[in-house]
Hints:
Strands 1-9-6-11-3-2 form a 6-stranded antiparallel β-sheet. It has a 5-stranded mixed β-sheet with strand order 17-16-18-15-19. A 4-stranded antiparallel β-sheet has the order 4-10-7-8, with no helix packed on it. It is elongated and about 85 Å long. The chain has 3 domains: 2-237, q2cbj1_9rhob like domain (Jelly Rolls, Sandwich); 247-303 and 405-496, Periplasmic binding protein-like II (D-Maltodextrin-Binding Protein, domain 2); 307-398, 3-Layer(aba) Sandwich (D-Maltodextrin-Binding Protein, domain 2), CATH 3.40.190.10. Helix 13 (420-439) packs across helix 14. By secondary structure, the chain is an alpha+beta fold. 33% of the residues lie in helices and 20% in strands.
Amino acid sequence: MDDAAQRYREDGVLVLRGAFDAWVEPLRAGIDALMANPSPLERTVRPADGSAPFFQDLCNWQRIPEFEAFVYKSPAAEIAARLMGSRTARFFHDHVLVKQPGGSTVTPWHQDQPYYCVEGRQSVSFWIPLDPVPRDVVMECIKGSHSWGKGFRPMRFDGTRLYAEDDFEVMPDIEAMRPTLDIAGWDMQPGDAIAFNFRTVHGAPGNLSPRMRRVFSARWLGDDAVFARRAGRTSLPFPDLGLEDGIYKANGLDVTIKKIPQKDRHLAIASGDLQCAATTVETWIVWNTNGIATTQLFKMDQGMGSDGIVARNDITKVADLKGKTVAASAPGTNPHFTLACILKKNGMSLKDVKLVTLEPAPAANAFVTGKDLDAAVTYEPYLSLVRDKPETGKLIADSLQYPMVFDSFACTPKFIKENPKAVKALVDSYFQALEMIEKDKQKAFTIMGADVKQTAEQFDKSQAKIKWADREANKKFFNGEILAFNKEAADCCSRSA
């Protein structure tokens, strides 16, 4: 299997002989049941020339017992993990493709991944025929196309674009290029399988043979799979993720989220480009002091070790930073404030260190990959870069030891006055998001992780050092805790300035 896995990763396609022989009859029974009772996702193509139809249906494994048994009991998951070189194999979806004898429908050359709401290099589809399929009818794959570094525009069978607007390239004329390409195809027997990567370019001719061509396809994801936002409704819509019709929309809000560095957010508020923002609590003090009026609506979270100072292994405590080169964001940002406060609590000030201005991500990367920095102020998920490479350094202070990192959400007084219903909806949306985390962590962290290019599992690990602020925590915070924090923060902010 090791040699086969290596060929799979190099070519993006591999034939597996007899891998699923024991599953031919159960899967045939499952397809019979499915065709007798298709799902709402059934997509039968009926050729204009009147030839036999091409039946397709997908995402039925949870209602067709034979398909569910295949997912849980067949060797598919183990084979998928080994081919992908992945620690895990997560089932994505099933797809049934039945081309009746004499059908003229051609499956156009395409990649699967642009149709999907996922990205990742570790993926595998098993194309499992349940009837003998000769070479001139079989699906074909272009070897090495998964490594072209290109995504090709997903198209429907009627020739229209799946997404009205997208940045994908137009698929080149593969048939014209055929002599120059390494196109793989095989005579297939029931129970064989073609394994191919989601990014592998593939297609299939019509079924002009006298025999039915029934195929069960099972698709798997590896460790590196992350959610991908597309320019429209994906081929697998997954409406339960709530990404197209989510919490904001359900509350009557049309929200545009802009990612702006913390040091520049006040400028966007002042110019009117933003009406609301999320940032750390002490930042509001700085903004309001400088004439940028904002009113906090709710506390979002508290750092419980998610923010901190990393230092070389020969630096054992904060006092050892004296005279050292330390990276932190610009004045007016939380990392700068955090450094000032931690130094103050250890009898020092910013004047006692050599300060280099770097944002949290570049600071962590520079610390891990270079030798110019003695220490850096950063936060999750970038702190994990150091945690994962203990030879480069260690954490010497964090927001659990020094509880000073609180994120909150605020809007301008003008927006609050003019849009009271929208303000209430924003607050309600936040607490509904917390309810989603409580009720369905996997779904919530899939959405949140995608925003920072992490899997749900990676995001879960990153957020473990954050305490989300529910309604009770907000009551305590705004009924007293914030006053004590503001007093201390004002002193640290003055030292930071």
